[in-house]
Design goal:
Strand content: 25-35%
Number of helices: 10
Order of helices and strands: HHHHHHHEEHEEEHEEHEEEE
Radius of gyration: 27 Å
Shape: elongated
Mean pLDDT: 87
Low-confidence stretches: 3-22, 177-181
Helix content: 25-40%
Largest sheet: 6 strands, antiparallel
């Protein structure tokens, strides 16, 4: 009995005097805002929504701007753009809800699509090109029409800086009869992350305008298209995009391939024997003479 009592006194001595007076809930609080804000950094968008729906307290914590900003920048793998025009929760939704531009317009032309990724415009000038050959040359002609006609590339500006999303769209060519034609057109479709939330886009006032078009009147091995932030043309990541053989498919692989860099995006599809390509460059502005908020580079076989 004496040994047992001494053992019990020894155990009691090991217990902190502070813990003797704490209830289980004061040892660890489940409702610690900083703790759950940190936990939220490890959750994807769907999990965040599910957690926010469990109670008013969690809804208050999880719908904080800082939570959704962190999730958006983390999942898109882009830099912080600073000030944005919409809440980060809405920006996350428009980036990851599966929507694309042909869901809102020209639905009857759409066939398939895939998300390429996100990139960042630091400057307000973009180089649009179908020629992925180093070194890149910035065309100097007076008009975009001449740039495209003579170089197969053009400079577009002013670009709305910030986060951009890029998709690869497969659509029916616009001049074909929908019921009988099998003709298809590949489109590198890029947009500012805020586009679908903008009133001018939603009410249909913003339309695509043709920047220029030309024909490649010889057999093309592939249909390639790229969008570069001119400020970052000499970046190492840009050189990776220009190393086309390192990321395009093998000779008999007809599936589209893509690559995204911090300030550029590119796609390529190997082609079977053909008579050439028609290439068109389009841009959408935020109102007349506004900033460019969406870009399309479209290619179809002749």
């Amino acid at each position: 009995m004496g040994k047992r009592m001494r053992k019990m006194r020894s155990i009691r001595c090991c217990v902190s005097p502070r813990l003797k007076f704490l209830t289980p809930h004061t040892i660890f609080s489940w409702y610690e805002e900083d703790t759950w804000t940190e936990v939220a950094k490890f959750l994807d968008g769907k999990s965040l929504i599910m957690l926010a729906a469990t109670s008013k307290w969690f809804h208050h914590i999880i719908t904080a701007e800082s939570v959704w900003k962190y999730a958006c920048l983390r999942d898109l793998e882009v830099a912080d753009p600073g000030k944005v025009g919409f809440k980060w929760m809405k920006l996350y939704a428009t980036a990851f809800d599966g929507s694309h531009s042909y869901m809102f317009r020209q639905k009857d032309k759409h066939i398939d699509w895939m998300r390429v990724g996100a990139f960042f415009f630091d400057s307000q000038a973009a180089l649009l090109t179908e020629n992925l050959i180093a070194p890149l040359r910035i065309p100097k002609e007076e008009t975009t029409e001449k740039m495209v006609e003579l170089n197969g590339s053009c400079v577009a500006k002013p670009i709305r800086s910030g986060i951009w999303l890029a998709d690869l769209q497969l659509v029916r060519c616009p001049v074909c009869d929908l019921n009988t034609c099998d003709g298809t057109m590949q489109t590198l479709d890029a947009r500012h992350i805020e586009l679908f939330l903008s009133e001018g886009y939603q009410d249909g006032n913003w339309e695509y305008e043709l920047l220029g078009s030309h024909e490649v009147k010889k057999e093309a091995d592939g249909a390639a298209a790229a969008i570069f932030d001119i400020k970052h043309l000499k970046d190492c990541a840009t050189n990776m995009i220009l190393d086309l053989n390192s990321w395009k498919g093998k000779h008999n692989d007809w599936q589209p391939k893509s690559i995204v860099a911090p300030h550029a995006v590119a796609v390529n599809t190997n082609l079977q024997p053909n008579d050439g390509l028609q290439v068109k460059y389009h841009a959408m502005r935020a109102g007349k003479d506004g900033e460019i908020v969406s870009i399309r580079v479209s290619q179809q076989l002749l």
